[in-house]
């Protein structure tokens, strides 16, 4: 399975509640924090929803 490392590069301050919840669901709470996720349709959708706040690297 394909894995990605996602890193939060922008703040969630002044973002809608659903975007804040998506970031927490991805395992990100602070700027420059990284998390590794296995790519599934659900995770890909979450990444797409908040892609303007993230940096995504394939592993």
TrEMBL record:
<dbReference type="GO" id="GO:0006412">
    <property type="term" value="P:translation"/>
</dbReference>
<dbReference type="Pfam" id="PF00327">
    <property type="entry name" value="Ribosomal_L30"/>
</dbReference>
<keyword id="KW-0689">Ribosomal protein</keyword>
<feature type="domain" description="Large ribosomal subunit protein uL30-like ferredoxin-like fold">
    <location>
        <begin position="4"/>
        <end position="53"/>
    </location>
</feature>
<dbReference type="GO" id="GO:0022625">
    <property type="term" value="C:cytosolic large ribosomal subunit"/>
</dbReference>
<dbReference type="InterPro" id="IPR036919">
    <property type="entry name" value="Ribo_uL30_ferredoxin-like_sf"/>
</dbReference>
<protein>
    <recommendedName>
        <fullName>Large ribosomal subunit protein uL30</fullName>
    </recommendedName>
</protein>
<keyword id="KW-0687">Ribonucleoprotein</keyword>
<dbReference type="InterPro" id="IPR016082">
    <property type="entry name" value="Ribosomal_uL30_ferredoxin-like"/>
</dbReference>
<comment type="subunit">
    <text>Part of the 50S ribosomal subunit.</text>
</comment>
<dbReference type="GO" id="GO:0003735">
    <property type="term" value="F:structural constituent of ribosome"/>
</dbReference>
<dbReference type="InterPro" id="IPR005996">
    <property type="entry name" value="Ribosomal_uL30_bac-type"/>
</dbReference>
<comment type="similarity">
    <text>Belongs to the universal ribosomal protein uL30 family.</text>
</comment>
